[in-house]
Structures are given as structure tokens and as C-alpha cells.
Amino acid sequence: MPAYNERCVPKGLPPTGFVGFLDVHAGRADHAEQLLDAAGAWLAARGAARAIGPCQYFSGQDMGLLIEGFDQPPALFQTHGRPGDLLLWEKAGYRESAGLATYRIPAEVIDARGPGLVAAGDAAARRLGLTARSMRRGGADLELIRTLFNASFASSPENLPYDHDLFHHIVAPLRPLLDPRLVRFVERDGRPVGFTLSVPDLNELLARMGGRAGPLDLLRARSRARRIRTAVVLIAGVLPEMPMGVAPVLFGETFRGVSEGGYREIRTTWVHDDNTAMRYLIERGLPVAPDRRYLLLERALGES
Prior knowledge:
With 304 residues, the chain is an alpha+beta fold. It has helices at residues 29-45, 85-91, 107-128, 139-152, 164-171, 202-208, 215-225, 246-261, 276-283, and strands at residues 2-3, 16-19, 50-53, 65-68, 95-105, 130-134, 183-188, 191-200, 230-238, 265-268, 271-272, 290-300.
């Protein structure tokens, strides 16, 4: 399915549309090429010069084509797929645009490294004059996350600002299931300057239901969510005017929330290959290797 909205085009890039939700029978690769060609034609007719995928509706939602880690179950917001999917996109003229990775931090790493990371974060906070708190104001804190995220990544052309309606539409289904201990803010002189947002992995709950959730299951989801033992780190950000050293504070606060909530595993959403600072913190600081790898693909429209 294609989607195009001029407001969702990253700054400095040509008019870009997004393609996703591709699923075809394993033996009908020709259908994939026909669908992707039709999606490209639809986007080009609306002014797009290139297409990126797989994405749901734009680059701020579920994205990426799984290329490694098919034996690992996806966490919340992680896309899944089949080993032959990359060939389907390549036959339709798509080529690599960016590499992404997700990480799994098991209980033994949390136990071994978590207390030290919390202590290091506390020391950095004292040095920088920072304080930290968990979520306590419901919708007001969710709106604070939106504004902090937009300000933190304002200079990054790959990240688009979330407008109010879109952001709250995305988080609305999660709001009743949020664990306030996993939502952390860092403040300086009472002013919020950074945040980290993690959520319970609802896929763990769906797996217990056999992948099927009826109306009664949905009503019980909130109470059952308290038994989820995996946390998924979604997004984090720091205001650009802050000095170096805030990232270890956020890292420590993430582990503090995980410990306070009794979670025994951490999964992440996508970390871009060019995000060397975050990759260093995870791969050298913990250390853990990526458990799943993804590609974002692009195609110039008008090419066959």
C-alpha cells in the first residue's frame, strides 16, 4: 500500500512516498513486482520522485525489511517477514537506503550491568545538575514526550516532527497499558531536557493467546499486561543545547525503570547503522550484538 503526504517528506530530500504492507504468496514473485510498480505509479502521479519502504504510512511508524533474525520472535513494533522478501523488492528496482538493527538484552546482562549503569547515570546527573523522574501526569507527560522528541531531532533530516493529532493517535492504544516506571524524564532546574520511553512488550501477551485476541481478551489485557516481563525501548531524546553526558543518565534511567518494574528482558526498536553513539553504548557498554537486522529500501520513481 502506498502513502504520500508532503508534510511527511524529510527536510532536504526529494518528494518521497512510502510503501508497505506487502504480502504475496511465496510462489508468486511476479505479483509483488506488479504491486510495487502500481504503488510507485500511484506515488509518482501525486508528485513523489522516490519511494521508500517497507514503511506503514511514513518513516515515523513501523518500518524495515527483516534480513537477519528470522528465528527470533518480533517484539512490539518490530516488523517480521520471510527470508525471500528482499529479492521481491530488489526485482522491483529497490535498493538499500539505510541499515537498521534491534537488540535483545537478556536477564543475565540486566543483572550484571544494570546496577552499574544506574550508578553511572546517577553520577553523571549529579555532575550536570540533573534530576530524574518517572511519568506522573498522564496525557500531559505524553505531550511532553512529543515536544521533547521534536526538539531533540529538529536538525536531523531523517526524523520528522510529530504533529499533535498524529502522535496521540499512535500512542492512544498504548496509553492504558503504559507502565509509568518505564517512562522517564530528565530535568535541569525543573525544566525537562530529555526523556526515554519504554513500554511492556504486548507481543509477549499475544503469544500467550496464540496470536489471537478476542473482545474478552482485550478487556483483560490491562490486568494481564502486569505479568509481562519484557520491556521495549521505543524512543529517547535530549535537547540539542544540553552538554555531552546526558545519554548515560537516560541509559541509567531506562535500567532503573526496568528494575523497578521487575522486567527480565529488554528489546529495542530500530537503531540506525549510522547512530554510532547509541550502537557504542549498547554493543560495547553492555555488551550485546544485534539480534535482528533490517533494511530500508528506496527506488527512484520513473525507473523500471
